[in-house]
Amino acid sequence: MVKEKPNSIRIYDDEGFRRRAACICVRSDAETEVLLVTSSRRPDNWIVPGGGVEPEEEPSVTAMREVLEEAGVIGKLGRCLGVFENREHKHRTEVYVMTVTQELAEWEDSRLMGRKRQWFSIDDALAQLALHKPIQRHYLQQLKRSKQTKPDDPGS
User: Fold this and answer.
1) Do 72 and 46 meet the contact criterion of CB atoms below 8 Å apart?
2) Residue 18 has what DSSP assignment?
3) Fewest CB atoms within 10 A around its CB: which of 6, 112, 123, 147?
4) How far is the C-alpha of 25 from the C-alpha of 34, rounded, in Å?
5) What is the pLDDT of residues 52-95, one digit of tens each?
6) How is the chain split among helix, strand and coil, in percent rounded to 5?
7) Which residues participate in catalysis according to the annotation?
8) Residue 73 · residue 41 · CB < 8 Å
């Protein structure tokens, strides 16, 4: 079942790319596990939660709204990993890291369409995304790169 948003207005940038936002949801600051959700179009496929930026909405707000709708999680928004371009579908997605602090037992998309969520190791998530959403693999590769370049935590 595909989710219909009757009042949804698509926002485009100056070059005609649809503006989107997404979150890589992590379980902890270690960033070793990420949350994926089942696709609304293909329930056997796992994807990164995200969606279209709405009028007058900041991409960071979009990202948090989308993970609440699609994954049923709330958390602390962290760094922006960058803007990722998909030329085939002509959209640009601003991707953030969010540390999950709460997982709801039931949420909008679980009720409306039976969407599921699941925690994956980074490598397992990369393998899942390679099957159906190869462009989203870039999000996780950037997560790994940005984690490696962060200064070591003196408390560890």
Assistant:
1) no
2) E
3) 6
4) 5
5) 999 999 999 999 999 999 999 999 999 999 999 999 999 999 99
6) 30, 35, 35
7) 69
8) no
